[in-house]
Amino acid sequence: MEEVEVTQTAPAGVLPAKQTAGFSFFANWRSTLEVIVMPVAAVIVALILFGIFCLLQKVNPIGVYQAIYKAAFGSWYSFQNTLIRAAPLMLAALCTALPARMGLIVIGNEGALVIGGVGATAVGLAVQAMQQNPAPMLVLASMALAGMFFGGLWIMAVGALRYFRGVNETICSLLMNYIAIAILNHLVNGPMKDPSSLNKPSSFPISDDNMMQCIGSSSVHWGLVYGIVACVIAWILIEHTTFGFKVRTIGGNIRAARIAGISVGKLTLITCFLAGASAGVAGMVEVAAVHGRANESLNAFYGYSSILVAFVARQNALATIFVATLFGGILASGGILQRSFHLPDATIMVFQGLVFLVILFSDSLYGKIGIFRERKG
Amino acid sequence: MKKSLNILAIAVAAFTAATAFADDITFGFIYVGPKDDYGYNQAHAEGAAGVAKLPGIKMVEEASVPETTAVQETMRNMIVQDGATALFPTSFGYFDPHILKVAKQFPKIQFFHCGGLYTEGKHPANVGSYFGYIDEAEYVAGIVAGYSTKSNKLGFIAAKPIPQVLRNINSYTLGVRSVNPKATVQVIFTGDWSVPVKEAESATSLIDQGVDVLTCHVDSPKVVLETAERRGIFVTGYHANGSALAPKGYLTGAEWDWTSVYSNYAKLVQAGKTLMAGGIPHLVRGGLKDGFVKVSPYGAAVSDEAKKAADAVKAKFMDGSFVIYKGEVKDNTGKVVIPAGKELKQQDIELEKMDYLVEGVIGSTKS
């Protein structure tokens, strides 16, 4: 296939110069500090702006902050709620974070999650049907692999369209979300439909024995571990392997990467596959730990929230774990604002949007504040 | 910092103690969308607001809660933090697995779910369901629509070809054709419960084809009502009274009356009755007669003739003598679906598996 000349530019939040900082913490302490201080400062500014919003709603902002903290991190009970929400966000966020390192803005997280979830359900049901009493581990493992496979192919298609045909990956992956949801609806209304699911068309169920369990005595399911493991692997892959180095080089300067003999096409496809695979596992976890079957509830906007997570984490896989936990907490506290403060249900979205905007804006300030500039010599 | 947190904790404790003093029963209501959607969620929120006015009842509510672990969390929070003892998670998709899971964890809390999915022996004893035969109100609205159309072309914008929706389309069409046998109802399925853009496009294209009365079964009829009004055609509403959105074209509509349903539950709960002890039935259903649903007040454009015909049928519903589905009924491919002489009453289980569109509907259940 003929290769289309593409000029990939690094997105906001991916400054190649910064990525080399790595472990040299003390040598480059100023820029390391910058990476930590900037997002924290951005969140504080967002909190102040949100406080003004609360005042306009005639609610005491300090009380609201305390309530958000209490509902998200204040006790083990509420922290579990936060972690449950964080798990799919971590997995799905990698779908944006990984390709971003090579200069691709992929926002097909929702679609990959849905396709991964449906694929995992289909394979899980097939395993259940083939064996009398399959070991739950076997069912879950095959579901996870299927989620990775189908989600991976989905985003790999985006990468292929980008690389071979020069199709804008952002628009393409966004539109493919709608195709994914249409495929889900078609499958649960047709070939995969359980006839007893009359008014909410769904697939046949994964039996209770084969569902993903909670960790110990907590109410947090094992999806959280999947998320943390995936983020750590992704971080090592990008920051500490030649593969990751090549990916970052492409993100820095695609022409230079080509001249250096890096196979841009192959890496684009592999990175996109890994990105989609990760979101696909998020879909698998939703099915295996929560819903037990595929239906329209899979399309629950985790994919879209996770785009914000990836950007706030500045596309760093390790930071994704913490940012996803923070966002999980923000989402988990949405209820208390409605129930205790009688704020509108969109309030938490206002807060989330403010955080996102301020973080994006703060990106433009990197390297412009004197105190964080490395001194020469 | 620690000190201020302690003070906060004490303040919170004092606050909860103060509110718990009054021996109120706390009801928790959960909606899948916003409370002001002019539709499904607004209807429930109005019902909840009605219950909150009753003495001795405290109400907490949460809107825009998705059908994920989020709703399990909201239910647990309402029980643990707000002390709710009866929950009304109103979205159909909350039931399995979310309500079932949380209900097992809190066997003393009562869960009332809108949708009529409860199965004896299969589901926990502290779970009940309720649902209304809103297709009765659709039938009455259909009569008004049948009189009001001039082009004899009506339009129905629907979410998904599932039994609940098909039953509304069919009852509406049977109502239309009971007074206007020449009329047809063109149906468009948008594929999802809330896709405002597709709903607007469907409305526009139906109106362009000559449809002069529109109606819908989607989560929020807002877009359909507004589009109809802007294009100067008639419309009948769904879920809640939409006359404010289409003051000229609003003929009537099929509405839920959750205030009456929830007030009944409140009375039972206040009297100390429970689902577990059998004091409250696990499955509650009703139509116009039982106050589950109602017909919107007629708009200015409705003729006296139409009002008279609609009121006559409504009266029969009220005394329980009217049957919508009586043979012979054919589907729109010509197949007989209910043979002559056979009557299917509202509570007939066969109606809940409906998978056809009756004669007079233009469209197909294949999405």
What does this structure look like?
- The complex is a heterodimer of chains A (377) and B (367).
- Chain A has 377 residues and is mostly helical.
- Chain A has one domain: Orthogonal Bundle (ABC transporter involved in vitamin B12 uptake, BtuC), CATH 1.10.3470.
- In chain A, 68% of the residues lie in helices and 0% in strands.
- Chain A has helices at 16-19, 29-56, 61-73, 76-100, 109-130, 136-165, 169-189, 223-240, 242-252, 254-259, 264-291, 302-312, 317-332, 334-341, 347-363.
- Chain A is globular.
- In chain A, 53% of the residues are buried.
- Mean pLDDT of chain A is 89; it is low at 10-22.
- Chain B folds into 2 domains: 18-132 and 258-286, Rossmann fold; 135-254 and 295-362, Response regulator (Rossmann fold).
- Chain B is an alpha/beta fold and 367 residues long.
- In chain B, 53% of the residues are buried.
- Mean pLDDT of chain B is 91; it is low at 7-22.
- Chain B is built from 10 helices and 17 strands.
- At the A-B interface, helix 3, helix 4, helix 7, helix 11 and helix 14 of A face strand 2 and helix 3 of B.
Summary, kept brief:
The complex is a heterodimer of chains A (377) and B (367). With 377 residues, chain A is mainly α. Helix content of chain A is 68%, strand content 0%.
